[in-house]
Amino acid sequence: MKSIYLINTKYQNHRQQGVVLIVALVFLIALTAVAAALMQNTTTDIKMAGASQEKAIVTQEAISEMGRIIFNEYRKVDGANAFSEKIVGTITFPVTDDQIMNSTGVNANEYGFDVSCPRNTQPTSGMKCTITRVQITQTYGRDNNHAVQVNSGIAQELPAGN
Fold first, then answer.
1. Over the stretch 22-51, which tens digit does the pLDDT of each residue have?
2. Which of 2, 49, 116, 138 is paired with 85 by a 20 to 30 Å CA distance?
3. For the stretch 20-53, what's the b/e string if a residue is b when 16 or more beta carbons lie within 10 angstroms of its beta carbon?
4. pTM of the entire predicted model
């Protein structure tokens, strides 16, 4: 009777080894699918982080360009100070990279009337303000299909009626 028992156990062991192989392959396929999904999420996260970083850099470049334009106009680097007179229509300020950036200035005084200066102290008698809105638009991204805009208002005292 013992010999029959040993033969049956040997037969069952061989049959179980095939089942273990199939179960191991199923687990391997499942783990491969989970790993592929995690890698896809990681790739998307890296792309999103890169795009966020690029937008932050472009925004800082546009803000720096705004500071450079205001400095150059007040210091009359290019000859005349556009903020010292009323702007009629739209003017274009020179920028460092005109391929991806443009800068415009318009008179922000409603209807072109003289207005009081927007500040806490009293303006000099006989002086009014001209308010100029300067806008920088910078494109970025693949094919330059995204844009960042930076706006600034410049108030300059001028003799009333000019």
1. 889 999 999 999 998 888 888 888 888 988
2. 138
3. eeeeeeeeeeeeeeeeeeeeeeeeeeeeeeeeee
4. 0.65
